[in-house]
Design brief:
Shape: globular
Mean pLDDT: 91
Structural class: alpha+beta
Number of strands: 9
Largest sheet: 7 strands, mixed
Strand content: 25-35%
Number of helices: 4
Length: 191
């Protein structure tokens, strides 16, 4: 237990202007679109690097970045990047969900060719919180995808490699918004 301090970089569109961004960012993601870690406030963690990449890719270069300090109770963060116990727990949630998913397929409530996804699993367990908070007590999830630019072998002739950099995101759910302690517009420069 204890507190976890994370620096997060929130990338957003410049469409409403810098004054709006300074006052209202970070912004909740689009509820009409499927999201990797379900719905909430998204941050690239630890470095501004991927915030810039997302700005170029997702906003065609017309973007702003807000740097935020996030302070979370460690029991409220599901860390799928740096905590093996959390990864194993997510594996258990996946296994439990797979049985439910098979039933949904049998009854036609999901397409036959659909598969369990990270987003579906999280969404399912977040809905269960309404009746039993102990199953999924988290207000934030930190995860990474398989992206890396370089895979460096640990030893000669070894198959295992260290991927760098890893692309990590944190999704902060609405109920965790108060974990945002400080925010600062860092791109574009206002000086």
């Amino acid at each position: 237990m204890g507190e976890v301090h994370i620096v997060g970089y929130h990338t957003c569109s410049l469409d409403n202007g810098l004054a709006h961004i300074q006052t209202h960012a970070p912004f909740h993601c689009n509820r009409e679109r499927k999201q990797w870690l379900t719905h909430g406030y998204y941050f690239w963690t630890d470095s501004i690097h991927f915030a810039h990449e997302w700005g170029h890719q997702g906003y065609a270069g017309r973007y702003a970045i807000v740097k935020c300090s996030l302070n979370l109770d460690s029991t409220l963060l599901l860390d799928l990047v740096g905590n093996v116990e959390h990864q194993l727990y997510f594996g258990k949630l996946l296994k439990d969900y797979q049985a439910r998913f098979a039933e949904l397929k049998r009854t036609g409530r999901v397409p036959q060719n659909a598969e369990p996804t990270v987003s579906r699993i999280i969404s399912h367990w977040r809905k269960k919180v309404r009746t039993d908070r102990r199953v999924f007590p988290y207000v934030a999830i930190k995860a990474q995808d398989g992206y890396s630019r370089v895979n460096i072998p640990f030893v000669d002739s070894g198959r295992e490699c260290m991927p760098i950099p890893t692309r990590q995101q944190l999704c902060l759910f609405e109920e965790g918004y108060e974990c945002i302690q400080n925010k600062e517009l860092v791109h574009p420069s206002t000086v």
